[in-house]
Amino acid sequence: MSITLSPSKAAYLARVAEGLADLAAEDREEVMQDLEAHLAELGDEEVETILGSPEAFVAEFRQSAGLVESEAEAQPGHIDIARARLDHWSARLGELTRWPTIRPVWVWTRGWLLVSAWSVLYDIEGIRRFPIPSIGGSSLTGLALVVSATTLSLWLDAGAEQTARSIGSVVLSVVGGFGLVGTLLNPLPTYDEIYAEPIYIDRLTGANGNPVDNIYAYDLDGNPVEVLLFDGEGRALQTLPSWVYEDAEYLPVDAPYDYGEGAVTFARDQFGRIIPNLYPLQLSRYDEFGSLRQVPPPSLGFPSVGDEAPDDENPVPTTTTPPFG
Predict the structure, then answer these.
(1) What does DSSP assign to residue 316?
(2) Are residues 218 and 262 in the same domain?
(3) Based on the domain organization, do 220 and 297 belong to the same domain?
């Protein structure tokens, strides 16, 4: 008849079997069968109360069987005692929390959890593209770190029988647990808290503080021209958020990059790298129906350049008409 033991009883039986490993196979098997039947009749909390610890049971059995052993072999060391206690409480915890069932889920998610906690704690935009964490404003960096951390987690768990990898798995679980607790105890800032502090905006803005998405250049005859723009320190002038340029760099040539507010298609050099400051940018915006439409150039009037006053009493002013209402 097959006997099913609880995890704590199974751990107790395994420790006894390990302590009697030097016995003949037939003798050890007979002892294990008797002990297994006896354990099945006891409650989990009664096992060590009645039988004592696995080491004590082994020592008593050896003494009653007349097996002579040295004092060093008869007395378990501190490591053996600590290991026995750890196995016992691990079995109890597993029984109470169904840890064996949820453990694979934890192994697959603790890498993602660790990177996500880092992103949320140190980057206000960390969950902008949840569930992919953003690191340094880049979702690609966050995704790469998640893949790396998950691979490391699976590799450490697969080597549970190796001491170094087993310790590494425990360390990763502890760090991931602290990351989860830190994230839960660190509430996200409210809008009042965000706007109470000055915010660094990494894009070009107008005098009213509104962002400038595009720049159009014309010659004196009113003909549109393409220009490369730089600031006073020779840096490429960029009008979109910095992460747009980072993410678009990895797209195929001529592929538009949708960054939420709209889409942009960058010109590229002979090496396939985007040219971020070639204006005007090829921008698209969402219309009222949710479809992307290319943004046409603004409707402009051009001032006359020269000393003579125009003959027209009502000269055309320099104006800008928004492309979409």
Answers:
(1) P
(2) yes
(3) yes
Instruction: Name every residue whose Cβ is closer than 8 Å to that of residue 227 and which is 6 or more positions away in sequence.
Output: 215, 217, 278, 279
What is the DSSP secondary-structure string of 232-257?
A: TTSPBP--S-HHHHHHHTTSPTT--E
Could you give the CA distance from residue 299 to residue 320 in angstroms, rounded to a whole number?
6
Please list, residue by residue across 274-305, b when 16 or more beta carbons sit within 10 angstroms of its beta carbon and e when fewer do. Answer: bebbbbbbebbeeeeeeeeeebeeeeeeeeee
pLDDT tens-digit map of 22-78: 888 888 888 888 888 888 888 878 888 888 888 888 888 888 877 655 444 455 556
DSSP structural state of residue 293:
E
Domain count, the chain: 3
pTM of the model: 0.36
- Domain containing 156 equals 102-185
Torsion 49-53-54-57 (CA) sign:
negative
CB 208 within 8 A of CB 145: no
Mean pLDDT of the 160-184 span: 75
